[in-house]
Design goal:
304 residues, alpha/beta, eight-stranded mixed sheet, 9 helices
Length: 304
């Protein structure tokens, strides 16, 4: 039986987002998936079935985010029940910028999703759920092989100065810092939504683990890209590592949207199916306030 509620998943054309959409559709919900290319996202939605809709969304443009939110408002879909901020990128070939002039990794992984949630909050039916897909790479205590985040200020992340590090190292650090931003945003939004019990809207962060073979490694140089696509996927068979197939991580992500037992759970961090502590830095209320307030200023600055 179809459940008359809709779940929005950004980055739903492949890997984690697509498989999460499939799992949520299996539970009877309606799903909206997004992608940058209109034909690609429409084809992905067609493969998912009648209760899936694919809409184009360019997270590198805040104007595109606002137009997308307007399209959701006018869509006639069943009530919006959940938002899954899943799309992300990692750029290791040099510094690039969004259409609005923000550093690309910060702009896409954090700022566009921040705006999307702000725009869609008034549409979110209660009880509702918001999930930010983060990463254990935000925590320098975890043996991820990635550089520790470097959060100085949100303004510095949006408009970085020249980095003396090699492009690959600088890009990976920007990625881990953007994932810290996702966790900081999760906790700050949960605080701002109030302490009502049970909360009408829950907000949680999710670490899918390392998922080799996915599109996240598309900007890697030749040998690294080949290893990401063809060698590292074998590591999913090794027990005890936080390395998973997209299907396994998608089942855990779909649980955060669907499980009735999590209806009162908010402001938490999940690694797969386990609730764990995030990094020490992610609980810094001053950093969260700086990120929130600066993000509001940045999105208003480019309002068209």
């Amino acid at each position: 039986m179809t459940d008359p509620r809709t779940v929005l998943i950004t980055g739903g054309t492949g890997s984690l987002g697509y498989r999460t959409a499939a799992a949520i559709l299996d539970a009877g919900r309606h799903v909206v998936i997004t992608g940058r290319d209109s034909e690609t996202v429409a084809a992905a939605a067609n493969r998912l079935g009648d209760n899936a809709v694919g809409l184009p969304l360019d997270l590198g443009s805040l104007d595109s985010v606002r137009r997308f939110a307007g399209a959701i408002t006018r869509s006639g879909l069943p009530p919006l029940h959940a938002i899954v901020c899943n799309a992300g990128m990692q750029i290791v070939s040099g510094t690039t910028f969004t259409a609005d002039g923000f550093e690309q990794t910060f702009g896409v992984n954090h700022l566009a999703h921040f705006l999307l949630v702000q725009e869609l909050l008034p549409l979110l039916a209660t009880p509702g759920r918001i999930v930010f897909v983060a990463s254990d790479t935000h925590d320098p205590k975890k043996p991820t092989g990635m550089p520790a985040p470097n959060y100085t200020s949100a303004l510095a992340l949006a408009y970085p100065e020249a980095d003396d590090a090699a492009a690959g190292a600088a890009g990976r650090r920007r990625y881990t810092t953007s994932k810290l931003c996702n966790v900081l945003t999760t906790y700050e939004l949960a605080r701002r939504l109030g302490d009502e019990t049970p909360p009408p809207i829950t907000v949680n962060a999710f670490d899918p683990g390392l998922m080799p073979g996915t599109g996240l490694g598309r900007d890697y140089p030749g040998i690294q890209r080949l290893a990401w696509r063809f060698l590292l996927p074998a590591m999913t068979l090794v027990p005890g590592l936080n390395i998973h197939t997209p299907r396994r991580s998608a089942a855990a992500l779909a649980r955060l949207v669907l499980d009735p037992a999590l209806a009162g759970t908010t402001g938490r961090y999940f690694s797969g199916r386990r609730e764990i502590r995030s990094s020490d830095e992610s609980y810094d209320a001053d950093l969260a306030a700086d990120l929130w307030n600066t993000s509001v200023e940045l999105i208003e600055k480019v309002r068209h």
